Amino acid sequence: MPDCPTHSGAPHVEIIGDEYHFVVTERGSEFERRKTKESDELLYWFVSGGVSQLARDWELEHRVEGNDSRRLWFAKEVEMLRTLNIEWAKRKVLHQKSVLKEHPFNDNI
């Protein structure tokens, strides 16, 4: 994990005082900044992002026509996180539920 900006859209960490700053920059512009004092939180942000990309790639290879692609993608995310940290998997499930509350599955797009 880079400790300085690459400006490529890849996240990096800045340590400011007793806080970790998870920062995403691209072409010199900052797109995201999250702050925490907890190293586990910081690790979750990095791992969750990587797992999400892997799960999206996996879903693309296993796509089921007529099904909302998030069905396979979300399930794969949780499956992968569960192998690393059960609490991270539970946290992802809660996040997915909040997303689906606002944007339910739509299987016939």
Compact summary:
With 109 residues, this protein is of the alpha+beta class. It has 3 helices and 3 strands, in the order βββααα.
Summarize the topology:
Blueprint: E1 8-16, E2 19-26, E3 29-36, H1 39-61, H2 70-84, H3 86-102
Antiparallel strand pairs: 1-2, 2-3
Helix pairs in contact: 1-2, 2-3
Kindly describe this structure:
The longest helix has 23 residues, at 39-61. The relative contact order is 0.11. The protein is α+β, with helices and mostly antiparallel strands and 109 residues long. The model has no long low-confidence stretch (mean pLDDT 93). A hairpin with a 2-residue loop joins strand 2 and strand 3 (29-36). The chain has a 3-stranded antiparallel β-sheet with strand order 1-2-3, covered by helices on one side. It contains 3 helices and 3 strands. The termini are far apart. The chain folds into 2 domains: 1-37, no CATH class; 39-102.
